[in-house]
Amino acid sequence: MDSVKKITTLIGTLSIMWNIALIAQETKENHKQKLPNIIYIYADDLGYGEIEPYGQHQIRTPHLNRLREEGMKFTDHYTSMPVCAPARCMLLTGKHGGHSYIRGNYEMGGFADSLEAGQMPLPEGMYTLPKMLKNAGYTTGMFGKWGLGMHNTTGSPLKQGFDAYAGILDQKQAHNFYPTHLWLNDEPLKLNNPVIDVHRQLDSTLATDKDFDAYIGLEYVGDVMTKHALAFIEENREGPFFLYLPFPQPHVSLQAPQQYIDPYRADFGGEKPYYGQRGYAPTKHPLSTYAAMITYLDAQVGKVLEKVSALGLDENTIIMFSSDNGTTFNGGVQPAFFNSVSGLRGLKMDVFEGGIRVPFLVRWTGKIKAGSTTELPSVQYDLMATLADLTNQNPGNTDGISFLPTLLGNAVAQKEHAYIYWEYPEKGGQVAIRMGKWKGVKVDVRRQTYKNAPWMLFNLERDRNETYNLANDYPELIQKFNEIVKKEHQPAHINEWEIINPKFRK
Q: 359: which residues sit within 8 A by CB, 6+ positions away?
């Protein structure tokens, strides 16, 4: 009889434990369902004024218009750094230029496939945005241009928090939109393209149509990235998922599918061919091709919007769109023709507004007010704090501030930066600080030393294009900026990125 009681008690205990486990699992699943999917689309070298929501009149971007109409437009949003690799590092780690592990484009290897070695890799143990979101139960995917380490290094996307990826690991490979291969989960993914040397210049006196056609392949890289991204959304439709889409457009070389180029040729009649004299692939129609690359990028945004809508995920998916820095200055790009940075001073590689102020659109159907605009000064290293706030996770030792209250229309709860800080060691070494309406800029801090390089001071409220230097009129602000640099700068781990200590100058 006692044994029967014991068995009965054991069965009852096991039943209770089983029910508790089921409840816990159900609670976990319910929590996962409440978390929104997150899609972050990152353009490459797209200037502040190159899409219609920010005043572009010559390049058509209907899907980004839709994103703007259905979501929020940020007028004063910034990249963390005016070039590729460090901007991507800071986006994914929540650090500014004075604290980030990667602060410049530290190139390894060469352009040929046999010399592919990528950029300086993220180190082991780095706390990244995808790692944080995985802690919250997200499935994570990256499809696009990486630039933070090769497949056989600590910088592989698989070692930095992504469950799956397909794309370009070495930024130099992204100079060609018809490469021989991509990387799929640390394995080469062969494409149906011949070897194309996009850095081979043509002789303008001898070039034929056949010579230009030699820079066109069969399999366009953006199509492959989009295919994998849409499959990832489909496979993870039950969510939550984080999809990072760093498309390589419109970074040079100037290459786009012909069906996107042809509609612009009538708009830009009489174009002069580009023969490669300023680097990257020659093209017969540089204006049409550049516009086509942006319209192509817009079309990929449209495909993502269509997939999300078809799966019934609109109300549970946040879609963000931005760029890693301002418009480039080489490869046949003509930023003045398109007013690419909306009249702002500077381009890519500058800490003036044209190099760092970027478009930022966010849509979350039913949560973000459609057609809304914010002038909140914000920066891409805020993303870590924002998504930590959204998912109730620890953002780590971030330099960012959550802009989630702004997205949800709660301006009263929104904290603001006392200042936004940039520290960029390349192009002579540069520092910038935005503090309210004031913007301080130093250039040539490695060539001249930080101490000897003078500050420039601009009132962005009255002078958004940074034309009038007011440094001599406000010595108290200059002193404040020096104090900020002293507080925010941490010595870089390689001499090439050290901007303060003069003995580390090249």
A: 46, 48, 50, 51, 53, 54, 74, 77, 321, 322, 323
State the Rg of the chain over Cα. Answer: 24
Strands 456-459 and 438-443, by their bridges, are: antiparallel
| 433: phi then psi, degrees, rounded to nearest 5 | -140, 130
Instruction: Note the pTM of the prediction, 2 decimals.
Output: 0.93
DSSP letters, 181-195, are EEEETTEEEE-S---
Over residues 489-501, the pLDDT tens digits come to: 999 999 999 998 7
Nearest to 328 by CA among 353, 355, 352, 351: 355
Q: Which of 372, 406, 376 is nearest to 389 (CA)?
A: 406
Give the CB-side neighbour count of residue 208, counting CA atoms within 13 A: 1
* pLDDT tens-digit series, residues 218-257: 999 999 999 999 999 999 999 999 999 999 999 999 999 9
Neighbouring residues of 316: CB distance < 8 A, sequence distance ≥ 6: 36, 37, 239
Beta bridge partners of 42: 246, 322
DSSP 115: G
Question: Whole-angstrom Cα distance, residue 380 to residue 80?
Answer: 6
What 8-state DSSP symbol labels residue 44? S
3-state SS assignment for residue 178: coil
Share of the chain above pLDDT 70, in %: 92
Strand, helix or coil at 414? coil
56-90 b/e (C-beta count within 10 Å ≥ 16 → b): beebbbebbebbbebbbbbebbbbbbbbbbbbbbb
Q: What is the dihedral of CA 444, 450, 454, 458, to 10 degrees?
A: 80
Q: Annotate 232-274 with DSSP letters as a single string.
A: HHHHTTTS-EEEEEE--TTSSS----HHHHHHHHTTTTTPPPB
Comparing CA positions, the residue from 395, 397, 379, 398 lying closest to residue 387 is 395
Alpha-carbon gap, residue 490 to 492, rounded angstroms: 6
